[in-house]
Design brief:
The chain has 281 residues and is of the alpha+beta class. The protein has helices at 47-60, 97-115, 135-151, 166-170, 182-188, 191-198, 221-232, 237-241, 245-257, 262-269, 273-280, and strands at 30-36, 62-64, 70-72, 74-81, 85-92, 128-131. The strands form two sheets. The protein has a four-stranded antiparallel β-sheet. A two-stranded antiparallel ribbon has the order 2-3. Strand 4 and strand 5 (85-92) form a beta hairpin.
Length: 281
């Protein structure tokens, strides 16, 4: 039976920010990990990017040694991909969690830099992590990770967000990637209980690793168009491009203020990147 079954008694603190000097080892091998974009930059510009990151996670799970034996590097229990950071609930197996994170990051950065014709770092050099040593905190993190998009006001319900592991648990639609060991969790927490728990909002004062990040989320495409509709009365690219310059510029400035990226606005509105950058510079 999975080692998660042997999680011990209550963890003393619900939230821990790890010291930079060293990482506290987990007695269970399970960690909550957060990977962030360098300088809070966006990690994903379109749906293809999210799916590519999931593919990188998928490939990092296993490797074949020199004898042809397939080794399990890690086990995932939950994930959530946000615009500028990623949460993972992960158990190390054949390699350390640090080696797995490096494997994921290297694969995705190679793809991202090639696609967007850029060089250099994408992720903040040192990922953040905390050990998960008991079932109580494990359950808190299942709620917390899946609720990130709700807390950031991107969606109203956990199940409405497309880039978290909740779809692997709910099975209301077939996920493109099945990455998580959901059965181990569901043996301990029946699905109906888990669903109720995950949709019950965690307290506002509970912060797990990313205290400063929740307010910096990029709005979703639907939210961008809702803002445009409120400001200008139009709801599609063609009508937006026919707006007068003052009204169009006012909408773009407000959207940048609310966290929309230049690339996102260029893609949705058809307005050139240089113009958007000049407005928000």
């Amino acid at each position: 039976m999975d080692n998660m079954m042997y999680l011990c008694t209550s963890q003393s603190e619900m939230s821990t920010i790890m010291p930079r000097e060293s990482r506290t080892p987990s007695g269970t091998g399970i960690y909550h990990v957060m990977m962030r974009g360098i300088n809070h930059q966006d990690l994903f510009e379109d749906e293809e990017d999210y799916y590519q990151f999931l593919s990188s996670m998928d490939h990092a799970r296993f490797q074949t040694n020199e004898k042809g034996v397939v080794i399990t590097n890690c086990v995932y229990y939950a994930y959530c991909l946000m615009s500028n950071h990623i949460h993972l609930l992960i158990r190390e197996r054949g390699e350390s969690v640090g080696e797995t994170i490096k494997r994921i990051a290297s694969s995705y950065v190679y793809y991202y830099n090639h696609k967007y014709m850029r060089d250099g770092h994408l992720f903040k050099e040192r990922y953040r992590s905390e050990p998960v040593n008991d079932m109580e905190y494990f359950a808190i993190l299942l709620r917390y990770i899946h609720q990130n998009p709700v807390k950031a006001h991107l969606v109203n319900r956990v199940g409405d967000y497309g880039f978290s592991s909740w779809h692997e648990y709910s099975r209301k639609e077939t996920p493109l990637f099945s990455l998580c060991d959901t059965q181990t969790v569901l043996r301990r927490i029946p699905f109906l209980s888990l669903e109720e728990m995950v949709n019950s909002l965690v307290p506002d004062d509970l912060h797990c690793l990313d205290i400063e990040d929740c307010a910096k989320m990029r709005p979703s495409d639907n939210q961008v168009w809702n803002i445009i509709l409120t400001i200008t009365g139009v709801s599609n690219m063609g009508d937006f491009q026919r707006l007068g310059k003052p009204q169009r510029d006012m909408a773009l400035i407000e959207l940048r203020r609310q966290g929309a990226s230049v690339r996102q606005l260029e893609r949705l509105t058809g307005v050139g990147r240089g113009l958007i950058q000049n407005l928000s510079g």
